[in-house]
């Protein structure tokens, strides 16, 4: 071998070695860069997962992830509470075990593989009758690389109940207003058609018109009082309840005398409470006027105030017609009357007791009733005295 060949070989070897080292160094740098990027990505994904978990755990809505077979993959705390079940008894099991609702299960399964989220309300079977507003978000590929779907459920039972109450209330109000209006219109038309010329008949019709117009005024006044009691916190002042009861009772003396009903009071010394004086006056007026209204001639009504301790109580009792046990739970509802005709005849609006209940409860108090049919009733209002 000539020295030229040896030198060429050595140079080629050197070049190869340098090239290999450079390639290894560059590869190492790339690897470090990639590792760095991978760490950043891992960090980001962990962060996103934490955020998602925090979001799902803090959500008031129940969230459940289902796989394509309708088995539970994941569940948040709100959903556990919604169904009153531990996650262990749900994860890996069919979702229908929690809901017992075929319709909801079918809805969830039908969404798998779809593109768009869908929303529907479901009433769960069973005594609770809970209604869940359910929105389903299908994913083409979940964590397990298979299609999954996320169900978001909000318990709207109370909302639905309130909606029904509101609708019933509006229907009741329009019915209550329409009755006197129809009567006024009919009387006025009859007068127009000639009854005006018969003075005796005309005076009768006019008296009814005035009576019905007064009724409309009472309904609208009671509705305003009710709306006020419901929408605002009471404007409290400190005043003597005993003194106020004495004063209000005095206003009913002539009415009770006319009805032949005796009116007695049993009042302690000054009993200060912190409450809205106007609203408390309304409570006393409504209870005392009812007691007189529903007590026949010869009967008795008594108003008693008792103090001492953290509560002050006021009881209005009568020896009147009383209320049957089956009606007792309903008498505080708006427009509920046991005897519609009797209530109307005596100028009732059917709102008096619901006004009482609303006002007393807004003051942190309670109203109770004890009654025996044909023997009499006793309504007791308890209010915090503000004393410890
Ligand atoms: P109303 O304007 O009809 O009196 P309320 O809301 O004050 O309406 O009372 C609701 C119903 O409760 C009355 O229609 C009546 O049937 C019954 N009620 C209320 N107070 C008495 C009472 N002291 N004795 C007997 N029944 C009563």
Q: Which structural category do the helix and sheet elements fall into?
A: alpha+beta
Q: Widest sheet: strand order?
A: 2-1-5-4-3
User: What are the low-pLDDT stretches, counting only 5+ consecutive residues below 50?
Assistant: none
Q: What would the principal axes of the Cα set say about the shape?
A: elongated
Can you walk me through this structure?
By secondary structure, this protein is of the alpha+beta class. The protein is 51% helix and 20% strand. The protein has 11 helices and 12 strands. It has helices spanning 3-58, 77-83, 96-99, 102-111, 157-192, 199-231, 241-251, 253-259, 277-293, 340-345, 352-362; strands at residues 62-67, 72-75, 118-123, 131-139, 148-155, 237-240, 262-266, 272-275, 300-306, 311-318, 366-372, 376-384. The chain has a 5-stranded antiparallel sheet, sandwiched between helices. The longest helix has 56 residues, at 3-58. The chain is elongated, with a radius of gyration of 38 Å. The model has no long low-confidence stretch (mean pLDDT 90). Adenosine-5'-diphosphate (ADP) binds next to helix 9 and helix 11. Adenosine-5'-diphosphate is lined by residues 286, 290-291, 294, 318, 320-323, 331, 336-339, 343, 348-354, 377.
């Amino acid at each position: 071998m000539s020295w030229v060949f040896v030198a060429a070989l050595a140079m080629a070897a050197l070049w190869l070695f340098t090239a290999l080292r450079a390639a290894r160094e560059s590869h190492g740098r790339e690897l470090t860069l990639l590792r760095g990027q991978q760490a950043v990505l891992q960090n980001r994904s962990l962060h996103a997962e934490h955020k998602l978990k925090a979001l799902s755990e803090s959500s008031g809505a129940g969230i459940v992830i289902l796989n394509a077979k309708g088995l539970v993959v994941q569940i948040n705390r709100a959903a556990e509470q919604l169904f009153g079940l531990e996650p262990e008894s749900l994860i890996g099991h069919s979702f229908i075990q929690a809901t017992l609702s075929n319709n909801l299960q079918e809805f969830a399964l039908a969404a798998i593989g779809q593109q768009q989220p869908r929303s529907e309300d479901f009433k769960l079977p069973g005594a609770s009758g809970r209604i869940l507003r359910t929105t389903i978000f299908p994913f083409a590929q979940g964590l397990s690389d298979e299609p999954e779907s996320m169900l978001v459920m909000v318990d709207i039972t109370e909302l639905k109940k309130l909606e029904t109450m509101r609708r019933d209330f509006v229907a009741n109000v329009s019915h209550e207003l329409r009755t006197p209006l129809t009567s006024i219109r009919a009387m006025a038309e009859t007068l127009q058609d000639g009854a005006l010329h018969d003075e005796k008949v005309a005076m009768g019709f006019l008296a009814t018109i005035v009576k019905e117009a007064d009724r409309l005024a009472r309904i609208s006044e009671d509705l305003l009082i009710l709306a006020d009691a419901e929408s605002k916190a009471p404007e409290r002042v400190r005043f003597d309840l005993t003194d106020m009861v004495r004063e209000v009772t005095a206003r009913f003396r002539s009415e009770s005398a006319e009805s032949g009903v005796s009116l007695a009071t049993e009042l302690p010394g000054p009993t200060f409470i912190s409450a809205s004086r106007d609203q408390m006056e309304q409570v006393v007026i409504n209870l005392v006027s009812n007691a007189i209204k529903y007590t026949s001639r010869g009967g008795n009504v008594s108003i008693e105030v008792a103090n001492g301790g953290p509560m002050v109580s006021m009881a209005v009792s009568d020896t009147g017609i009383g209320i049957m046990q089956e009606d007792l739970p309903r008498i505080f509802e708006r427009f509920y009357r046991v005897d519609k005709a009797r209530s109307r005849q005596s100028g009732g609006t059917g709102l008096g007791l619901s006004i009482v209940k609303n006002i007393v409860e807004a003051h942190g108090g309670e109203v109770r009733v004890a009654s025996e049919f044909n023997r009499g009733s006793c309504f007791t209002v308890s209010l915090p005295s503000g004393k410890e």
